[in-house]
Amino acid sequence: MRLDADQLAAFAAVVDEGSFEAAARRLHVTPSAVSQRIKALEASVGQVLVQRSRPSRPTEAGQILVRLAGQVSVLESEALSELMGELPGARAPLRMPVAVNADSLATWFLPALADLPAEQAMTFDIRQEDQDHSIALLRDGTVMAAVTAEAKVVQGCRAEALGAMRYLAVASPEFRRRHLESEKMPGALASAPMLVFNRKDGLQHRFLRGLLQRNADPPVTYLPSSWGFVEAARLGLGWGMVPEQMARPAIDAGELIEIRPGHPLDVPLYWQRWRLESAALAALTDVVKARGLGLLNQDANKEHAGQGR
Amino acid sequence: MRLDADQLAAFAAVVDEGSFEAAARRLHVTPSAVSQRIKALEASVGQVLVQRSRPSRPTEAGQILVRLAGQVSVLESEALSELMGELPGARAPLRMPVAVNADSLATWFLPALADLPAEQAMTFDIRQEDQDHSIALLRDGTVMAAVTAEAKVVQGCRAEALGAMRYLAVASPEFRRRHLESEKMPGALASAPMLVFNRKDGLQHRFLRGLLQRNADPPVTYLPSSWGFVEAARLGLGWGMVPEQMARPAIDAGELIEIRPGHPLDVPLYWQRWRLESAALAALTDVVKARGLGLLNQDANKEHAGQGR
Protein backbone atom coordinates (compact mmCIF):
# COMPACT_ATOMS: atom_id res chain seq x y z
CA MET A 1 0.00 0.00 0.00
CA ARG A 2 1.22 3.52 -0.86
CA LEU A 3 -0.06 6.77 0.58
CA ASP A 4 -1.25 9.37 -1.92
CA ALA A 5 1.06 12.42 -1.80
CA ASP A 6 -1.72 14.96 -2.48
CA GLN A 7 -3.86 13.46 0.24
CA LEU A 8 -0.96 13.50 2.68
CA ALA A 9 -0.18 17.14 1.80
CA ALA A 10 -3.82 18.11 2.35
CA PHE A 11 -3.76 16.38 5.72
CA ALA A 12 -0.50 18.09 6.74
CA ALA A 13 -1.86 21.49 5.68
CA VAL A 14 -5.07 21.04 7.72
CA VAL A 15 -3.11 20.13 10.85
CA ASP A 16 -0.59 22.92 10.27
CA GLU A 17 -3.13 25.67 9.54
CA GLY A 18 -5.78 24.47 11.97
CA SER A 19 -8.74 24.48 9.55
CA PHE A 20 -9.90 23.05 6.21
CA GLU A 21 -10.47 26.59 4.85
CA ALA A 22 -6.94 27.83 5.67
CA ALA A 23 -5.45 24.61 4.28
CA ALA A 24 -7.43 25.11 1.07
CA ARG A 25 -6.09 28.68 0.73
CA ARG A 26 -2.54 27.47 1.20
CA LEU A 27 -2.88 24.68 -1.35
CA HIS A 28 -4.84 26.87 -3.78
CA VAL A 29 -7.74 24.40 -3.96
CA THR A 30 -11.33 24.49 -2.64
CA PRO A 31 -12.16 23.46 0.95
CA SER A 32 -14.30 20.66 -0.46
CA ALA A 33 -11.28 19.31 -2.37
CA VAL A 34 -9.34 19.30 0.90
CA SER A 35 -12.19 17.55 2.64
CA GLN A 36 -12.39 14.87 -0.09
CA ARG A 37 -8.65 14.20 0.10
CA ILE A 38 -8.78 13.81 3.88
CA LYS A 39 -11.75 11.44 3.61
CA ALA A 40 -9.96 9.40 0.95
CA LEU A 41 -6.81 9.23 3.09
CA GLU A 42 -8.88 8.17 6.10
CA ALA A 43 -10.59 5.50 4.00
CA SER A 44 -7.26 4.18 2.72
CA VAL A 45 -5.78 3.75 6.22
CA GLY A 46 -9.11 2.79 7.78
CA GLN A 47 -8.82 5.32 10.63
CA VAL A 48 -10.16 8.76 11.47
CA LEU A 49 -7.16 11.11 11.20
CA VAL A 50 -8.52 14.58 11.97
CA GLN A 51 -10.80 15.72 14.79
CA ARG A 52 -13.41 17.96 13.17
CA SER A 53 -12.93 20.59 15.90
CA ARG A 54 -11.61 24.14 15.80
CA PRO A 55 -8.67 24.21 15.47
CA SER A 56 -8.53 20.91 13.56
CA ARG A 57 -6.28 18.55 15.52
CA PRO A 58 -4.91 15.16 14.49
CA THR A 59 -6.33 12.08 16.21
CA GLU A 60 -3.91 9.65 17.83
CA ALA A 61 -3.73 7.75 14.53
CA GLY A 62 -3.31 11.07 12.71
CA GLN A 63 -0.27 11.98 14.81
CA ILE A 64 1.70 9.16 13.19
CA LEU A 65 1.02 10.69 9.79
CA VAL A 66 1.83 14.25 11.00
CA ARG A 67 5.26 13.03 11.89
CA LEU A 68 5.63 11.18 8.61
CA ALA A 69 4.54 14.27 6.64
CA GLY A 70 7.04 16.44 8.50
CA GLN A 71 9.88 14.01 7.87
CA VAL A 72 8.99 13.64 4.19
CA SER A 73 8.86 17.42 3.79
CA VAL A 74 12.34 17.87 5.27
CA LEU A 75 13.88 15.12 3.16
CA GLU A 76 12.14 16.32 -0.01
CA SER A 77 13.22 19.90 0.54
CA GLU A 78 16.82 18.83 1.06
CA ALA A 79 16.84 16.53 -1.96
CA LEU A 80 15.48 19.35 -4.12
CA SER A 81 18.10 21.77 -2.89
CA GLU A 82 20.81 19.21 -3.65
CA LEU A 83 19.40 18.65 -7.14
CA MET A 84 18.76 22.24 -8.06
CA GLY A 85 21.29 24.09 -5.94
CA GLU A 86 20.54 27.19 -3.91
CA LEU A 87 19.22 29.18 -6.88
CA PRO A 88 16.76 31.83 -5.76
CA GLY A 89 13.28 30.36 -6.11
CA ALA A 90 14.60 26.81 -6.54
CA ARG A 91 12.61 25.84 -3.46
CA ALA A 92 10.65 27.47 -0.68
CA PRO A 93 12.75 27.67 2.49
CA LEU A 94 12.15 24.76 4.82
CA ARG A 95 9.98 25.71 7.79
CA MET A 96 11.28 24.05 10.94
CA PRO A 97 8.75 23.60 13.78
CA VAL A 98 10.42 23.88 17.20
CA ALA A 99 9.23 24.23 20.79
CA VAL A 100 11.17 26.46 23.17
CA ASN A 101 10.63 27.27 26.84
CA ALA A 102 9.77 30.95 27.34
CA ASP A 103 12.94 32.00 29.15
CA SER A 104 15.21 30.43 26.52
CA LEU A 105 13.23 32.21 23.81
CA ALA A 106 13.71 35.48 25.70
CA THR A 107 17.46 35.02 26.04
CA TRP A 108 19.81 32.80 24.01
CA PHE A 109 17.61 30.94 21.50
CA LEU A 110 17.03 33.64 18.86
CA PRO A 111 20.73 34.59 18.71
CA ALA A 112 21.40 30.88 18.08
CA LEU A 113 19.01 30.92 15.09
CA ALA A 114 20.76 34.02 13.78
CA ASP A 115 24.04 32.07 13.86
CA LEU A 116 22.78 29.69 11.14
CA PRO A 117 24.91 29.97 8.01
CA ALA A 118 23.20 31.90 5.19
CA GLU A 119 23.07 28.84 2.90
CA GLN A 120 20.65 27.20 5.38
CA ALA A 121 17.61 29.13 4.18
CA MET A 122 15.21 28.09 6.93
CA THR A 123 12.18 29.68 8.48
CA PHE A 124 10.72 28.59 11.81
CA ASP A 125 7.45 27.75 13.44
CA ILE A 126 8.29 28.54 17.04
CA ARG A 127 6.03 27.28 19.84
CA GLN A 128 6.59 28.83 23.21
CA GLU A 129 5.65 26.01 25.55
CA ASP A 130 6.32 24.75 29.01
CA GLN A 131 8.21 21.50 29.15
CA ASP A 132 5.25 19.11 29.59
CA HIS A 133 3.60 20.40 26.49
CA SER A 134 6.89 20.34 24.53
CA ILE A 135 7.18 16.63 25.13
CA ALA A 136 3.65 16.12 23.82
CA LEU A 137 4.45 18.22 20.73
CA LEU A 138 7.58 16.16 20.00
CA ARG A 139 5.67 12.93 20.49
CA ASP A 140 2.73 13.86 18.28
CA GLY A 141 5.01 15.19 15.55
CA THR A 142 3.97 18.86 15.75
CA VAL A 143 7.56 19.96 16.35
CA MET A 144 10.83 18.42 15.14
CA ALA A 145 12.92 19.63 18.04
CA ALA A 146 12.54 21.25 21.44
CA VAL A 147 14.50 23.05 24.15
CA THR A 148 13.13 21.59 27.35
CA ALA A 149 13.94 20.96 31.00
CA GLU A 150 12.82 17.35 30.53
CA ALA A 151 15.80 14.96 30.45
CA LYS A 152 13.78 11.84 29.63
CA VAL A 153 14.26 11.02 25.95
CA VAL A 154 11.06 11.08 23.88
CA GLN A 155 10.60 7.95 21.76
CA GLY A 156 12.12 8.42 18.31
CA CYS A 157 14.16 11.39 19.48
CA ARG A 158 17.74 12.08 20.46
CA ALA A 159 18.39 14.21 23.58
CA GLU A 160 21.50 16.17 24.43
CA ALA A 161 22.28 18.16 27.56
CA LEU A 162 22.70 21.91 27.16
CA GLY A 163 23.92 24.02 30.07
CA ALA A 164 21.72 25.07 32.96
CA MET A 165 19.80 28.32 33.13
CA ARG A 166 20.64 30.24 36.29
CA TYR A 167 17.81 32.07 38.06
CA LEU A 168 18.23 34.86 40.61
CA ALA A 169 15.59 36.02 43.10
CA VAL A 170 15.15 39.73 42.38
CA ALA A 171 13.00 42.71 43.39
CA SER A 172 13.14 46.47 42.98
CA PRO A 173 14.95 48.49 45.66
CA GLU A 174 11.63 50.22 46.47
CA PHE A 175 9.93 46.81 46.86
CA ARG A 176 12.60 45.70 49.30
CA ARG A 177 12.22 48.91 51.30
CA ARG A 178 8.45 48.54 51.43
CA HIS A 179 8.02 44.79 51.96
CA LEU A 180 11.26 43.26 53.14
CA GLU A 181 12.82 45.70 55.58
CA SER A 182 9.96 46.26 58.02
CA GLU A 183 10.12 42.63 59.16
CA LYS A 184 12.97 40.25 59.69
CA MET A 185 14.27 38.50 56.60
CA PRO A 186 13.77 35.86 55.35
CA GLY A 187 10.43 35.62 57.21
CA ALA A 188 9.17 38.78 55.48
CA LEU A 189 9.22 36.87 52.17
CA ALA A 190 6.43 34.61 53.44
CA SER A 191 3.91 37.44 52.98
CA ALA A 192 5.46 39.75 50.36
CA PRO A 193 3.79 39.83 46.90
CA MET A 194 5.36 37.22 44.63
CA LEU A 195 5.49 36.99 40.84
CA VAL A 196 4.84 33.56 39.29
CA PHE A 197 5.03 32.81 35.57
CA ASN A 198 2.06 30.40 35.48
CA ARG A 199 0.46 27.55 37.47
CA LYS A 200 3.32 25.22 36.56
CA ASP A 201 6.15 27.56 37.59
CA GLY A 202 7.43 26.22 40.91
CA LEU A 203 10.71 28.18 41.02
CA GLN A 204 9.58 30.85 43.50
CA HIS A 205 8.01 28.38 45.90
CA ARG A 206 11.16 26.24 45.72
CA PHE A 207 13.35 29.24 46.52
CA LEU A 208 11.06 30.16 49.44
CA ARG A 209 11.09 26.62 50.84
CA GLY A 210 14.86 26.59 50.71
CA LEU A 211 15.00 29.85 52.63
CA LEU A 212 12.18 29.41 55.15
CA GLN A 213 12.43 25.63 55.67
CA ARG A 214 8.62 25.48 55.38
CA ASN A 215 5.88 26.07 52.83
CA ALA A 216 4.54 29.61 52.48
CA ASP A 217 1.50 31.05 50.74
CA PRO A 218 2.24 34.69 49.82
CA PRO A 219 -0.04 36.76 47.55
CA VAL A 220 0.71 35.81 43.94
CA THR A 221 0.53 37.67 40.62
CA TYR A 222 0.57 35.31 37.62
CA LEU A 223 2.37 36.83 34.63
CA PRO A 224 3.08 34.48 31.70
CA SER A 225 5.62 36.63 29.82
CA SER A 226 9.41 36.48 30.29
CA TRP A 227 10.09 40.13 29.57
CA GLY A 228 6.88 41.18 31.35
CA PHE A 229 8.12 39.28 34.39
CA VAL A 230 11.37 41.29 34.59
CA GLU A 231 9.48 44.51 33.90
CA ALA A 232 6.95 43.75 36.67
CA ALA A 233 9.82 43.12 39.13
CA ARG A 234 11.43 46.40 38.06
CA LEU A 235 8.10 48.19 38.59
CA GLY A 236 7.77 46.76 42.09
CA LEU A 237 4.73 44.53 41.46
CA GLY A 238 6.45 41.62 43.22
CA TRP A 239 9.67 39.65 43.60
CA GLY A 240 10.43 36.65 41.40
CA MET A 241 13.04 34.29 39.94
CA VAL A 242 14.55 35.79 36.76
CA PRO A 243 17.20 34.30 34.42
CA GLU A 244 20.52 35.86 35.39
CA GLN A 245 21.06 36.94 31.79
CA MET A 246 17.90 39.09 31.91
CA ALA A 247 18.36 40.33 35.47
CA ARG A 248 22.02 41.37 35.18
CA PRO A 249 21.60 44.63 33.20
CA ALA A 250 18.85 45.82 35.58
CA ILE A 251 20.94 44.82 38.62
CA ASP A 252 23.93 46.72 37.24
CA ALA A 253 21.68 49.75 36.61
CA GLY A 254 20.41 49.63 40.20
CA GLU A 255 16.83 48.91 39.08
CA LEU A 256 16.75 45.41 40.55
CA ILE A 257 18.48 43.95 43.59
CA GLU A 258 19.21 40.33 44.41
CA ILE A 259 17.17 39.28 47.43
CA ARG A 260 19.64 36.64 48.60
CA PRO A 261 22.98 36.98 46.81
CA GLY A 262 24.66 33.60 46.53
CA HIS A 263 21.38 31.64 46.39
CA PRO A 264 20.70 31.07 42.68
CA LEU A 265 18.59 28.23 41.27
CA ASP A 266 19.92 26.33 38.26
CA VAL A 267 17.62 24.61 35.76
CA PRO A 268 19.37 22.20 33.34
CA LEU A 269 18.07 22.31 29.77
CA TYR A 270 18.06 19.70 27.00
CA TRP A 271 17.81 19.70 23.22
CA GLN A 272 15.55 16.92 21.97
CA ARG A 273 15.17 16.33 18.24
CA TRP A 274 13.78 13.73 15.87
CA ARG A 275 16.14 10.99 14.74
CA LEU A 276 16.26 12.08 11.11
CA GLU A 277 19.22 12.37 8.75
CA SER A 278 18.65 16.00 7.79
CA ALA A 279 21.30 18.60 7.05
CA ALA A 280 18.96 21.36 8.22
CA LEU A 281 18.24 19.70 11.55
CA ALA A 282 21.96 19.00 12.00
CA ALA A 283 22.83 22.66 11.28
CA LEU A 284 20.17 23.81 13.75
CA THR A 285 21.50 21.41 16.37
CA ASP A 286 25.02 22.82 15.89
CA VAL A 287 24.03 26.45 16.57
CA VAL A 288 21.69 25.55 19.43
CA LYS A 289 24.38 23.50 21.14
CA ALA A 290 27.01 26.19 20.62
CA ARG A 291 24.84 28.89 22.23
CA GLY A 292 23.19 26.58 24.72
CA LEU A 293 26.48 25.25 26.03
CA GLY A 294 28.28 28.58 25.75
CA LEU A 295 25.78 30.94 27.33
CA LEU A 296 24.30 28.78 30.02
CA ASN A 297 25.89 27.92 33.27
CA GLN A 298 28.09 24.86 32.80
CA ASP A 299 29.20 24.38 36.36
CA ALA A 300 25.67 24.54 37.67
CA ASN A 301 24.42 22.30 40.40
CA LYS A 302 22.33 19.92 38.34
CA GLU A 303 20.38 18.12 41.02
CA HIS A 304 17.22 20.14 40.36
CA ALA A 305 16.03 18.61 37.10
CA GLY A 306 12.52 18.72 35.75
CA GLN A 307 11.52 22.28 36.57
CA GLY A 308 11.53 25.19 34.21
CA ARG A 309 9.45 27.64 32.30
CA MET B 1 -32.55 28.14 47.48
CA ARG B 2 -29.16 29.26 48.76
CA LEU B 3 -25.76 28.13 47.51
CA ASP B 4 -23.38 26.76 50.13
CA ALA B 5 -20.38 29.09 50.49
CA ASP B 6 -17.86 26.29 51.17
CA GLN B 7 -19.07 24.37 48.15
CA LEU B 8 -18.85 27.47 45.96
CA ALA B 9 -15.33 28.19 47.24
CA ALA B 10 -14.26 24.61 46.47
CA PHE B 11 -15.69 24.93 42.96
CA ALA B 12 -13.92 28.29 42.38
CA ALA B 13 -10.62 26.86 43.64
CA VAL B 14 -10.85 23.83 41.31
CA VAL B 15 -11.50 26.04 38.28
CA ASP B 16 -8.81 28.53 39.31
CA GLU B 17 -6.11 25.95 40.10
CA GLY B 18 -7.04 23.49 37.36
CA SER B 19 -7.20 20.35 39.51
CA PHE B 20 -8.90 18.90 42.60
CA GLU B 21 -5.49 18.26 44.20
CA ALA B 22 -4.25 21.85 43.81
CA ALA B 23 -7.61 23.21 45.02
CA ALA B 24 -7.35 20.98 48.10
CA ARG B 25 -3.85 22.29 48.86
CA ARG B 26 -5.07 25.88 48.57
CA LEU B 27 -8.07 25.29 50.82
CA HIS B 28 -6.09 23.15 53.28
CA VAL B 29 -8.52 20.23 52.98
CA THR B 30 -8.25 16.76 51.40
CA PRO B 31 -8.92 16.21 47.67
CA SER B 32 -11.81 13.95 48.63
CA ALA B 33 -13.39 16.79 50.66
CA VAL B 34 -13.12 19.01 47.58
CA SER B 35 -14.67 16.28 45.45
CA GLN B 36 -17.57 15.83 47.90
CA ARG B 37 -18.29 19.58 47.95
CA ILE B 38 -18.32 19.76 44.16
CA LYS B 39 -20.66 16.76 43.95
CA ALA B 40 -22.96 18.31 46.58
CA LEU B 41 -23.00 21.62 44.69
CA GLU B 42 -23.75 19.80 41.45
CA ALA B 43 -26.56 17.89 43.16
CA SER B 44 -28.05 21.09 44.56
CA VAL B 45 -28.17 22.87 41.17
CA GLY B 46 -28.95 19.67 39.26
CA GLN B 47 -26.18 20.20 36.70
CA VAL B 48 -22.64 18.98 36.05
CA LEU B 49 -20.39 21.96 36.78
CA VAL B 50 -16.84 20.70 36.23
CA GLN B 51 -15.42 18.68 33.36
CA ARG B 52 -13.28 15.95 34.96
CA SER B 53 -10.43 16.68 32.52
CA ARG B 54 -6.91 18.03 33.03
CA PRO B 55 -6.94 20.93 33.62
CA SER B 56 -10.40 20.88 35.22
CA ARG B 57 -12.60 23.26 33.22
CA PRO B 58 -16.09 24.50 34.07
CA THR B 59 -18.98 23.22 31.97
CA GLU B 60 -21.30 25.75 30.35
CA ALA B 61 -23.49 25.65 33.47
CA GLY B 62 -20.36 25.95 35.60
CA GLN B 63 -19.31 29.16 33.85
CA ILE B 64 -22.29 30.97 35.38
CA LEU B 65 -21.05 30.01 38.83
CA VAL B 66 -17.42 30.93 38.01
CA ARG B 67 -18.59 34.43 37.30
CA LEU B 68 -20.75 34.51 40.43
CA ALA B 69 -17.84 33.27 42.58
CA GLY B 70 -15.55 35.95 41.15
CA GLN B 71 -18.05 38.70 41.80
CA VAL B 72 -18.75 37.50 45.34
CA SER B 73 -15.02 37.34 46.07
CA VAL B 74 -14.48 40.94 44.93
CA LEU B 75 -17.43 42.29 46.92
CA GLU B 76 -16.52 40.27 50.02
CA SER B 77 -12.91 41.41 49.91
CA GLU B 78 -13.96 45.05 49.60
CA ALA B 79 -16.53 44.82 52.40
CA LEU B 80 -13.90 43.27 54.69
CA SER B 81 -11.41 45.98 53.92
CA GLU B 82 -14.08 48.63 54.67
CA LEU B 83 -14.94 46.93 57.96
CA MET B 84 -11.44 46.18 59.16
CA GLY B 85 -9.39 48.87 57.45
CA GLU B 86 -6.16 48.24 55.65
CA LEU B 87 -4.44 46.66 58.63
CA PRO B 88 -1.69 44.29 57.57
CA GLY B 89 -3.16 40.82 57.50
CA ALA B 90 -6.76 42.09 57.67
CA ARG B 91 -7.36 40.40 54.33
CA ALA B 92 -5.45 38.70 51.58
CA PRO B 93 -4.97 41.08 48.63
CA LEU B 94 -7.64 40.68 45.99
CA ARG B 95 -6.41 38.78 42.93
CA MET B 96 -7.77 40.36 39.77
CA PRO B 97 -7.96 38.09 36.69
CA VAL B 98 -7.37 40.08 33.47
CA ALA B 99 -6.68 39.21 29.84
CA VAL B 100 -4.27 41.37 27.87
CA ASN B 101 -3.12 41.18 24.25
CA ALA B 102 0.60 40.37 24.01
CA ASP B 103 1.78 43.70 22.60
CA SER B 104 -0.05 45.72 25.28
CA LEU B 105 1.50 43.49 27.94
CA ALA B 106 4.92 44.16 26.39
CA THR B 107 4.45 47.95 26.36
CA TRP B 108 2.02 50.08 28.39
CA PHE B 109 -0.03 47.65 30.51
CA LEU B 110 2.43 46.83 33.34
CA PRO B 111 3.31 50.51 33.91
CA ALA B 112 -0.46 51.10 34.24
CA LEU B 113 -0.65 48.45 36.99
CA ALA B 114 2.30 50.08 38.74
CA ASP B 115 0.30 53.35 38.77
CA LEU B 116 -2.29 51.84 41.13
CA PRO B 117 -2.33 53.66 44.47
CA ALA B 118 -0.63 51.72 47.28
CA GLU B 119 -3.90 51.37 49.25
CA GLN B 120 -5.27 49.20 46.42
CA ALA B 121 -3.43 46.07 47.53
CA MET B 122 -4.18 43.93 44.47
CA THR B 123 -2.42 41.04 42.81
CA PHE B 124 -3.18 39.89 39.27
CA ASP B 125 -3.83 36.77 37.29
CA ILE B 126 -2.72 37.94 33.86
CA ARG B 127 -3.69 35.92 30.77
CA GLN B 128 -1.84 36.81 27.63
CA GLU B 129 -4.42 36.09 24.97
CA ASP B 130 -5.36 37.05 21.49
CA GLN B 131 -8.58 38.95 21.22
CA ASP B 132 -10.90 36.06 20.29
CA HIS B 133 -9.91 34.12 23.32
CA SER B 134 -10.18 37.22 25.57
CA ILE B 135 -13.84 37.55 24.64
CA ALA B 136 -14.43 33.90 25.59
CA LEU B 137 -12.63 34.42 28.91
CA LEU B 138 -14.78 37.47 29.73
CA ARG B 139 -17.93 35.60 28.77
CA ASP B 140 -17.18 32.49 30.80
CA GLY B 141 -16.13 34.50 33.84
CA THR B 142 -12.45 33.49 33.87
CA VAL B 143 -11.34 37.13 33.70
CA MET B 144 -13.02 40.29 35.04
CA ALA B 145 -11.56 42.63 32.46
CA ALA B 146 -9.62 42.56 29.21
CA VAL B 147 -7.60 44.76 26.88
CA THR B 148 -8.75 43.69 23.45
CA ALA B 149 -9.04 44.83 19.83
CA GLU B 150 -12.67 43.65 19.86
CA ALA B 151 -15.09 46.62 19.97
CA LYS B 152 -18.25 44.53 20.32
CA VAL B 153 -19.41 44.65 23.94
CA VAL B 154 -19.51 41.28 25.70
CA GLN B 155 -22.83 40.63 27.48
CA GLY B 156 -22.69 41.82 31.09
CA CYS B 157 -19.63 43.97 30.39
CA ARG B 158 -18.90 47.62 29.80
CA ALA B 159 -16.49 48.56 26.97
CA GLU B 160 -14.50 51.75 26.58
CA ALA B 161 -12.23 52.81 23.74
CA LEU B 162 -8.55 53.21 24.52
CA GLY B 163 -6.19 54.69 21.96
CA ALA B 164 -4.85 52.77 18.99
CA MET B 165 -1.58 50.88 18.94
CA ARG B 166 0.61 52.02 16.07
CA TYR B 167 2.63 49.37 14.22
CA LEU B 168 5.64 50.04 11.98
CA ALA B 169 7.04 47.64 9.38
CA VAL B 170 10.67 47.14 10.40
CA ALA B 171 13.74 45.12 9.47
CA SER B 172 17.45 45.20 10.25
CA PRO B 173 19.70 47.26 7.94
CA GLU B 174 21.51 44.03 7.00
CA PHE B 175 18.17 42.36 6.14
CA ARG B 176 17.28 45.27 3.84
CA ARG B 177 20.66 45.07 2.14
CA ARG B 178 20.34 41.33 1.63
CA HIS B 179 16.67 40.95 0.70
CA LEU B 180 15.20 44.29 -0.31
CA GLU B 181 17.85 46.08 -2.33
CA SER B 182 18.68 43.47 -4.96
CA GLU B 183 15.17 43.72 -6.42
CA LYS B 184 12.81 46.60 -6.90
CA MET B 185 10.76 47.59 -3.87
CA PRO B 186 8.00 46.98 -2.94
CA GLY B 187 7.98 43.83 -5.11
CA ALA B 188 10.99 42.41 -3.24
CA LEU B 189 8.79 42.14 -0.12
CA ALA B 190 6.67 39.48 -1.85
CA SER B 191 9.45 36.93 -1.36
CA ALA B 192 11.51 38.24 1.59
CA PRO B 193 11.28 36.26 4.88
CA MET B 194 8.47 37.60 7.04
CA LEU B 195 7.91 37.37 10.80
CA VAL B 196 4.34 36.58 11.95
CA PHE B 197 3.26 36.41 15.60
CA ASN B 198 0.88 33.44 15.19
CA ARG B 199 -1.77 32.02 12.82
CA LYS B 200 -4.21 34.79 13.76
CA ASP B 201 -1.82 37.70 13.20
CA GLY B 202 -2.87 39.29 9.91
CA LEU B 203 -0.91 42.56 10.29
CA GLN B 204 1.98 41.69 7.98
CA HIS B 205 -0.24 40.34 5.21
CA ARG B 206 -2.42 43.46 5.49
CA PHE B 207 0.62 45.70 5.16
CA LEU B 208 1.82 43.69 2.15
CA ARG B 209 -1.58 43.84 0.43
CA GLY B 210 -1.68 47.62 0.90
CA LEU B 211 1.76 47.94 -0.67
CA LEU B 212 1.59 45.35 -3.47
CA GLN B 213 -2.13 45.62 -4.31
CA ARG B 214 -2.25 41.82 -4.40
CA ASN B 215 -1.87 38.84 -2.07
CA ALA B 216 1.63 37.50 -1.53
CA ASP B 217 2.93 34.31 0.06
CA PRO B 218 6.46 34.96 1.37
CA PRO B 219 8.34 32.49 3.61
CA VAL B 220 7.05 32.92 7.18
CA THR B 221 8.59 32.43 10.61
CA TYR B 222 5.97 32.18 13.38
CA LEU B 223 7.20 33.70 16.64
CA PRO B 224 4.58 34.13 19.40
CA SER B 225 6.52 36.48 21.71
CA SER B 226 6.37 40.29 21.56
CA TRP B 227 9.93 40.91 22.69
CA GLY B 228 11.17 37.91 20.72
CA PHE B 229 9.56 39.41 17.64
CA VAL B 230 11.55 42.66 17.92
CA GLU B 231 14.70 40.73 18.73
CA ALA B 232 14.21 38.47 15.69
CA ALA B 233 13.79 41.54 13.45
CA ARG B 234 16.95 43.05 14.96
CA LEU B 235 18.82 39.79 14.30
CA GLY B 236 17.70 39.78 10.67
CA LEU B 237 15.46 36.68 10.79
CA GLY B 238 12.70 38.56 8.94
CA TRP B 239 10.75 41.79 8.67
CA GLY B 240 7.56 42.35 10.67
CA MET B 241 5.06 44.81 12.13
CA VAL B 242 6.23 46.01 15.55
CA PRO B 243 4.52 48.43 17.98
CA GLU B 244 6.13 51.84 17.47
CA GLN B 245 6.87 52.06 21.19
CA MET B 246 9.03 48.92 20.97
CA ALA B 247 10.59 49.70 17.60
CA ARG B 248 11.55 53.32 18.31
CA PRO B 249 14.62 52.74 20.55
CA ALA B 250 16.06 50.22 18.04
CA ILE B 251 15.33 52.58 15.12
CA ASP B 252 17.05 55.44 16.95
CA ALA B 253 20.02 53.16 17.65
CA GLY B 254 20.26 52.21 13.97
CA GLU B 255 19.48 48.53 14.69
CA LEU B 256 16.14 48.59 12.88
CA ILE B 257 14.95 50.59 9.90
CA GLU B 258 11.40 51.38 8.81
CA ILE B 259 10.68 49.61 5.54
CA ARG B 260 8.13 52.18 4.35
CA PRO B 261 8.26 55.35 6.47
CA GLY B 262 4.85 57.00 6.61
CA HIS B 263 2.94 53.70 6.25
CA PRO B 264 2.02 52.67 9.82
CA LEU B 265 -0.91 50.43 10.75
CA ASP B 266 -3.10 51.48 13.68
CA VAL B 267 -5.02 48.95 15.79
CA PRO B 268 -7.66 50.47 18.13
CA LEU B 269 -7.86 48.84 21.56
CA TYR B 270 -10.71 48.56 24.05
CA TRP B 271 -11.05 47.96 27.77
CA GLN B 272 -13.89 45.60 28.54
CA ARG B 273 -14.85 44.87 32.16
CA TRP B 274 -17.65 43.27 34.14
CA ARG B 275 -20.50 45.54 35.23
CA LEU B 276 -19.76 45.34 38.95
CA GLU B 277 -19.70 48.07 41.58
CA SER B 278 -16.19 47.43 42.81
CA ALA B 279 -13.69 50.01 44.03
CA ALA B 280 -10.81 47.76 42.91
CA LEU B 281 -12.15 47.34 39.39
CA ALA B 282 -12.83 51.09 39.21
CA ALA B 283 -9.28 51.90 40.34
CA LEU B 284 -7.87 49.47 37.77
CA THR B 285 -10.05 51.03 35.07
CA ASP B 286 -8.71 54.49 35.98
CA VAL B 287 -5.04 53.58 35.57
CA VAL B 288 -5.64 51.50 32.43
CA LYS B 289 -7.55 54.34 30.78
CA ALA B 290 -4.96 56.92 31.81
CA ARG B 291 -2.09 54.91 30.27
CA GLY B 292 -4.15 53.47 27.43
CA LEU B 293 -5.39 56.85 26.30
CA GLY B 294 -2.13 58.64 27.07
CA LEU B 295 0.42 56.32 25.49
CA LEU B 296 -1.45 55.11 22.47
CA ASN B 297 -2.03 56.99 19.32
CA GLN B 298 -5.17 59.11 19.69
CA ASP B 299 -5.33 60.60 16.22
CA ALA B 300 -4.99 57.19 14.61
CA ASN B 301 -6.94 56.17 11.57
CA LYS B 302 -9.47 53.88 13.25
CA GLU B 303 -11.02 52.18 10.26
CA HIS B 304 -9.04 48.97 10.78
CA ALA B 305 -10.86 47.50 13.76
CA GLY B 306 -10.83 43.85 14.77
CA GLN B 307 -7.19 42.93 14.22
CA GLY B 308 -4.52 42.75 16.83
CA ARG B 309 -2.24 40.49 18.75
UniProtKB/TrEMBL annotation, chains A, B:
Keywords: Activator, DNA-binding, Repressor, Transcription, Transcription regulation. InterPro entries: ArgP (IPR017685), LTTR (IPR050176), LysR_HTH_N (IPR000847), LysR_subst-bd (IPR005119), WH-like_DNA-bd_sf (IPR036388), WH_DNA-bd_sf (IPR036390). Residues 3-59 form the HTH lysR-type domain. GO terms for molecular function: DNA binding; DNA-binding transcription factor activity. It holds the Pfam family LysR_substrate. Belongs to the LysR transcriptional regulatory family. NCBIfam families: argP, PRK03635.1, PRK13348.1. This is HTH-type transcriptional regulator LysG. It comes from Phytoactinopolyspora mesophila.
